[in-house]
Amino acid sequence: MTNKNLGFLVKFNWEVVSDYLDRHVHAIYVGDLLIGYISIITMLGERIFTPFTADGELPEAHCASCAAQALFAKHCGLPPDAIDAVDARFESAGATETSLEKAIALLAALSVLKSKTH
User: 41: which strand partners?
Assistant: First the structure.
């Protein structure tokens, strides 16, 4: 059996659901499907990224991209190491999105076929 990888590109959309001075919560979507939330808390100049769903919190991530990656893995029922994240730059209506939008609206390269082929 030949071991092959197949990658899929998935664009994440987000909306702010809670916005305070020291914390923000973003709802993360794939298309119209809500896959979870990312809480971003700023403490002493350091940002803490915590992905969570209705089932509870996932482990803290070191950036918004990794938090979105963890949500996507959980939603798909895949181990986190099956997902590879790549940073992408999108342009919307001629204006480049903010760095947070770039981080959350990343393209996830999904390598599902690590052990089997279709």
Answer: 23, 48
- Report whether 81 contacts 62 (CB < 8 A): no
- By the 8 A CB rule, do 106 and 97 touch? no
Structure tokens at 22: 């020291």
Residue 42, domain member (yes or no): yes
Per the domain annotation, does 23 fall within a domain?
Answer: yes
For 32, residues 6+ apart whose C-beta sits below 8 A from its C-beta are none
What pLDDT is attached to residue 74? Answer: 93
Structural domain including 33 reads: 9-110
Model confidence at 88: pLDDT above 60 = no
Closest among 34, 29, 37 to 58, alpha carbons compared: 37
Dihedral (CA of 31, 47, 65, 96) sign: positive
